[in-house]
Design a protein that fits this description.
About 40% of the residues lie in helices and about 20% in strands. It has helices at about 1-25, 45-55, 90-100, 105, 130-140; strands at about 60-65, 70-75, 75-85, 115-120, 120-125, 140-145. Helix 1 (about 1-25) crosses helix 3.
Length: about 150
C-alpha cells in the first residue's frame, strides 16, 4: 500500500511539474505582457500579477516568477501561487492533489502546517494565517494540511 501511495504521489507531482513546464514554454516570451509585469516581481504578468500583488501586500518577500507562477517567502516559510489555463489541459482540480502533498514546502525545508487556497483558475499555498489573509482579498476555498506529506482537511 505504501509503495502505491508513493507512486501516486510521484505521478501527481510529476504531472504538475510537466504541466507547469508546458505552460511556461507556451506562454513565456510574450512581448505584449512585458510592460505589465508586477512591480518588484520580475516576469509576473496578467492574473498572476494580480495575485502576486496580493501576496506582497500580505507580507510576502523575495518573490520571483513568470507569467503563470510566483514563489515567495513569508517569515521564512514557503509561499507560492499558480494560475492555470484549462485550454492547455490543466485544471485546478488536476493540480490540487499535488499541491496538498506539500512537496514544494518540504523541498525548501518548511515542515510546518500549511494551507492551499484555490479558485477557479488559480492556487495559492503558504502558512495558514498568511493564506487566510490572502483569502480575504481573493476569496476561494481553503484546504488545511498539518505538514508536508501529512493529512489535509
Amino acid at each position: 500500500m505504501k509503495a502505491k501511495s508513493l507512486l501516486a504521489l510521484t505521478g501527481a507531482v510529476g504531472g504538475t511539474l510537466a504541466a507547469a513546464g508546458v505552460v511556461f514554454v507556451l506562454l513565456d516570451g510574450d512581448p505584449e505582457t512585458a510592460d505589465r509585469a508586477a512591480p518588484g516581481v520580475p516576469g509576473v504578468t496578467g492574473e498572476t500579477r494580480e495575485i502576486a500583488e496580493v501576496l506582497v501586500d500580505s507580507g510576502a518577500t523575495g518573490c520571483r516568477g513568470d507569467r503563470g507562477r510566483v514563489e515567495c517567502r513569508f517569515s521564512d516559510r514557503y509561499v507560492a501561487a499558480e494560475v492555470v489555463d484549462p485550454r492547455l489541459g490543466v485544471t485546478v482540480d488536476s493540480m490540487l492533489p499535488g499541491w496538498k502533498t506539500g512537496a514544494a514546502q518540504a523541498s525548501t525545508g518548511d515542515r510546518g502546517p500549511f494551507a492551499v487556497l484555490y479558485g477557479r483558475t488559480w492556487l495559492v499555498t503558504g502558512p495558514e494565517a498568511f493564506v487566510e489573509e490572502v483569502q480575504e482579498r481573493l476569496q476561494g476555498r481553503i484546504v488545511y494540511c498539518d505538514r508536508p506529506y501529512g493529512a489535509c482537511y
